[in-house]
Amino acid sequence: MTEAPLCVVLTGPSAVGKSTLAEAIQEYWEEPLLRFGVDELYRMVPGQWAGGVKNARHASQGFTYQNVEHMPGARRIDNGPDALAMLYAMNAAIVAMLASGVGVVVDGQAFEPAVNDDLQARLRRMRDEGTARIAVVELAVADEQLADRHRRHAHPTGLSLHQNTLPKQAKDPDLVVETTGLTAAEVADVVCGWLDKEYAGPR
């Protein structure tokens, strides 16, 4: 009997190591896992709705960067109504991939509680119905190491430390990995070993 497709949802602040871990999981797993998450979604956003485009005429409807008053140098992403529609569309796309029989690594979510609750509710239904295996993995890190990772991040935008103060994206993760002091390879070993034990299908 063919196993239901696997969905691994990676959560945590920007620069915590989600993308590196997503790639490691894809390489390790014995089934194809498509990578899709908030960064992939942002790359699809039309420029005039994007926060990083100067004078984008629809930015207020889309994604914008806002300064965090009590944290000098920190920024947050504000999601306008069109941005929220796109985020919900991302959730629908993840579910559609799984429904087609193909596994997914969700490489990050927006810090938008209603959108995250929507995805978790959709995935819980699939898990309850037996149509997908769902693993929610939260990566955590202390502020000092996060600040260092942020400085070396490919696209530093001042998001990391503020995101680390926000409520967690998943209410009940299946696994929490405290990554402070661990290398990316060590984090991958922990997560892939756990996935192999808990979710591996027939090889």
TrEMBL record:
Statement: the UniProt record of this protein carries the keyword Transmembrane helix: yes
Keywords from the named record: Membrane, Transmembrane, Transmembrane helix
InterPro entries: P-loop_NTPase
One Pfam family linked to the record: CPT
Domain of life where this protein originates: Bacteria
Keyword Membrane: yes
Membrane-spanning ranges: 85-106
Gene3D superfamilies, A to Z: P-loop containing nucleotide triphosphate hydrolases
Alphabetized SUPFAM superfamilies for the sequence: P-loop containing nucleoside triphosphate hydrolases
Protein's UniProt name: AAA family ATPase
Organism the protein comes from: Catenulispora pinistramenti
